[in-house]
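Subject: Protein record for review, amino acid sequence with backbone structure tokens
Why sent: The fold of this protein is of interest and is recorded here as tokens.
Notation: Tokens come from a learned vocabulary of local backbone shapes, not from coordinates.
Attached in line: The record itself begins immediately under this heading.
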Amino acid sequence: MSIEVLAPGLLTTVQAHGREGFRHLGVGSGGALDPDTHAIANLLVGNAASAATLEIALAGPTLRFEHASRIALCGAAFDADIDGEPLFGWRSATLPAGSVLRIGGCRTGARAWLAVSGGIRVPAVLGSASTDLRGGFGGVEGRALRAGDRLHAEPFTETVERTRIAPWWIDPHALDAQPSSPIRVLPGSDATDPGGGLFEHAWTIAPASDRQGLRLAGTALAVRDAREYMSEPIIPGTVQLPSGGEPIVLLADAQTHGGYPRIGHAIRADRGRLAQLRAGDKVRFAPCTPVEALAAMRERTHTLARIALAIAGRTGVAPPRPSA
């Protein structure tokens, strides 16, 4: 099955699960910024939870489906339509051959994931189809989509004469019942004031933020030593403090080592909300213990499993085991 990219959107990339086992070689994990929402989109169209999707940021693409397909768009609230018929998020839609999907601007949030039945087919690089924009590999030639690109997925076997949009959907707040609550942070190894400045006030997302990390603007924090440290391992979620005193929260495309002090670590259960922050948004942080972080992750994993079972009950397709 072929999909023609008529317009690419602002930043649309192929993303799947992250690359594991290569950090010692300087290769970051990457992958979908919110793997749980990415998984739900896949489950809605009958894919494995880790199948490759399109990650869409702020303004989406226009795509022509040359063959029948089933799709689902999950994440931020985008204006979208199929040949003029409105498409709402968090539900599946079955399209006949020749359909044009237009995904416009993002009303709230920042990113969504478009799953296509059969998954987006691109060669795996180091075990993943995900696009590494900094490294220039994976996905479609290691870059964002361009007009004229052709994407491929497994053939869709059903006969489809008209667009059919499922009458049921997944509650977008099912994973995060309190989307405006503070991001929980574990104290970092270089934190000199574990209860301090990071938690005292709201921070503004700076325009220079991207898939590598969110730069925070606000009252500068005191830096224990203005010099950079010897580079040490860092991972997605690490909160770094550059010499200017304004923190950086690392996301999926984080580098593998860094010399800035590590003052905290955003817990895994809250990182999906970080993916929905855009320039100008406000965010607050709250301290967290390892026991609380583990409990939050278990709760999120159980919620994702219940969503998978609910989808299976509607579609009659046994759910693949979602990644935690």
Q: What stands out?
A: The chain has a mean pLDDT of 90. DSSP finds three helices and 20 strands in the chain. Helices lie at 35-44, 271-274, 290-315. The chain has two domains: 2-173, 183-288.
